[in-house]
Structure formats: C-alpha cells, structure tokens
Amino acid sequence: MTSKTSSAYAAAGVDIDAKMNALKRAKKLIQQTKTAGVLSEIGSFGGLFQSPGRDHVLVSSIDGIGTKLNVAVLAGRHDTVGQDIVNHCVNDILVQGAFPLFFLDYIGTSVLDPGMISEVIRGVTKACRANGCALIGGETAELPGLYPPGEYDLVGTIIGAVERKKIITGKSIRSGDVLIGLPSSGLHTNGYSLARKALFQDAGLKLSDKLPGTAIPVEKALLAVHRSYLKPVQALLGKLPVRGLAHITGGGFYDNIPRVLPGNVDAEIDAAAWKRPALFTVIQDAAQVSDEEMYRVFNMGIGMVIAVRRPDAEPALAILKKAGERPKVIGRVIPGHGVVQIA
Questions:
Q1: Taking the CB of residue 261, how many other CB atoms lie within 10 A of it?
Q2: CATH 3.90.650.10 fits 178-342, yes or no
Q3: 175-204 burial string, b = 16+ CB within 10 Å, else e?
Q4: What is the 3-state secondary structure of 214-275?
Q5: Record: fold of 2-166
Q6: Of 301, 264, 36, which Cα lies nearest the Cα of 181?
Q7: Bridge partner list, 183
Q8: Distances (CA, A) of 91 to 61, 201, 262, 285, 304
Q9: Are 13 and 110 in contact (CB under 8 A)?
Q10: Residue pLDDT, tens place only, 36-82
Q11: What residues pair up with 59 in beta bridges, in sequence order?
C-alpha cells in the first residue's frame, strides 16, 4: 500500500524518497553547526534553543536572495547561495546589535535534485559555522507546477539576541557624526533582475566571458558571496559606542540609511570616497541607468554603513582595520529631515 502511494506520488512529480535521502545526506553537515544553546536534534517537528536570558531581546529576520538564484541555476553552481542567505540574514539583525543564535531554511523546487539540495545546505552550514549560528531546522518542498522545471527558491529565517540596553536604533545619531563604509564583495543579493538584463541582454555577455575591464569571469562576479559583517562589527561594538548601522541591501543608500536616521538629520554621502567596483560601472553603462537609480538599487561597493561620533571615527577605523577590514569614511551627518544626499 505504501509503495503504491509513494510511486503514484512520484509519478505526479513528488519523490518523497529522494527528499528523505537528500536530507539524510545533509544531516552530518547540519550537526556541525550545533552550538551550546541547541536542545533538539534534526528531524523534530520544531527546533529547540535555550533563551540567552531575561535581560536579552530576541531579534528575528526572514529573507531570500531573489533572482541571484537564476544565475546559480544557469551556472549549475549552488554552494554559494546557501552562504548568501545566511550572511544576508546575519547582517540584517546585526544592525540592531544582535548576534545570531540559530537559523532555519526553506528550499522550494519543482523537482527535487539531491545534488543541488546538498550543495545549498553545504553553503548554509558553512556560513552558519562561520557566524557561530546553529542550523536547527528547515523545510524542503517539492512543488511541481508551482516552480518552473530546474528552478528553486531559497529563504532563510534567523533568530538572534541582544542585551536590551545595547539595542542599536539610530536614535542617538546627531549632526556632525561620521559615516564609515565597509566594502561589499559585489552585488551581494540585490539588483539581480536589472544586473542580468544589463549584462546578458544589453551587453550580450555570457557567464564564461570576462567582465569588461577586468580579468574576472562574469560568473565569478555575479556569484561572489554576500559578506557577513559580524566579526568586524562585533570587534567595534566591544570597544566604542556605535550610533547606527545600515545594511545596504534592496533600496540601496537612499532607502536603507534613512531607516536608522532621526527625522532631523540627513546622511551626506561622498561617492568619491571609495573606488566603485567595475561590475557596477559595466551594469550602468550597458543598461544606461542614472546615478540616482544605481544608488537606489545597488550597494555600489559599500555593504555596511556605520555611524559614530566624530571623536570616535579614527579609533573606529583603527579597530576595523585590525579586524581585517578596509573601512572608508564615506560621509557625515548634517541637519536635515531624514534623507540621504549623495554628492
């Protein structure tokens, strides 16, 4: 009876055995992310994690990596996107001063490919280990008819914690503060619909082609892993007060920095303060995109913006450099009404 039901389900497009075998293969990888707070084993209906204490606040975020997955499918490479989703989520809670505790993933696909699932989970577990974050559960869904053949979706949920008195909100940002930028590794996980159109349609490039003006293959440039800023920011938070943090994701500078600005100040960004990576110039030239739209869609080479008091700027730069970063002073806070000005 079970065999017939399974066979009929597989004929309809859902192979339960393939799914369970893929998850069994991934179990050892997932166990490598186990941290002290984990109270359950993989396979339970829900993951259990010890709360860090009454004086802490839990911080959560959920996100996906959008059409970067189309590039991964085109390239037949799936190990980097798992790292992307973890690091993206880590950065999203980091801006409030929270450090990651545990992570859950969702993979939805038309037909389950055990090799692809294993690669994705390998990337997820690699990033979880690097961020000190436990992967305590997830969902793999085979949904023929919902996803196009060969395509899949990847979503992640993260839970972190921060001491209540150490929550970073941006409310203390004042005119005169200094804005420090940390470099991105590329597009990270935003703007891929425009980037793919610009590079593949407008410029006529292939994944194997070199990015114009560089020796870097287009595939490598587009699949560069979204950076985690946990370690450098963690080093900074332990040494001096940080007034605000902005993760430059979808919405770029214009929409992300105002999320932490008080209503009586503006962020004045000096676009000449850092060297724009070639990838952004190629995209802009190919698709004929305005500067304003580029800074609204992309990170333009800066993945995290840190607001500190002017007296703390030089010590902050020194701490970040010691942590292996290449920080740049990219702007300042001026009187205004909560918007970004880019010169």
A1: 22
A2: yes
A3: eebbbbbbbbebbbbbbbebbbebbbeebe
A4: CCCEHHHHHCCCCCCCHHHHHHHHCCCCCCEEEECCCCHHHHHHHHHCCCCEEEEECHHHCC
A5: 60s Ribosomal Protein L30; Chain: A; (3.30.1330)
A6: 301
A7: 302
A8: 10, 32, 21, 30, 8
A9: yes
A10: 777 656 655 555 667 787 888 899 999 999 999 999 999 999 999 99
A11: 160
Cα(94)–Cα(161) distance, rounded to whole angstroms?
Answer: 9
Q: CA 183, 188, 191 angle in degrees (round to 5)?
A: 120
Cα end-to-end span (Å), the chain: 70
Dihedral Cα 251, 281, 208, 130, nearest 10 deg: -50
Name which of 125, 105, 107 is nearest 62 in CA terms.
105
Distance in angstroms (rounded) separating the CA atoms of residues 95 and 93: 5
Which one-letter DSSP state was computed for residue 311? Answer: G
- What interhelical angle do 79-94 and 68-75 show, nearest 10? 160
| Domain ranges for the chain | 2-166, 178-342
pLDDT tens digits, one per residue of 274-299: 999 999 999 999 999 999 999 999 99
Bridge partners of 302? 183
pTM summary value: 0.88
Please tell me the total number of residues recorded for the chain in this structure.
Answer: 343
- Topology alike, domains 2-166 and 178-342: no
Identity (one letter) of the amino acid at 339?
V
Tokens of 217: 């293959």
Distances (CA, A) of 291 to 108, 117, 231, 275, 285: 36, 38, 31, 15, 11
| 8 Å CB contact between 153 and 147 | yes
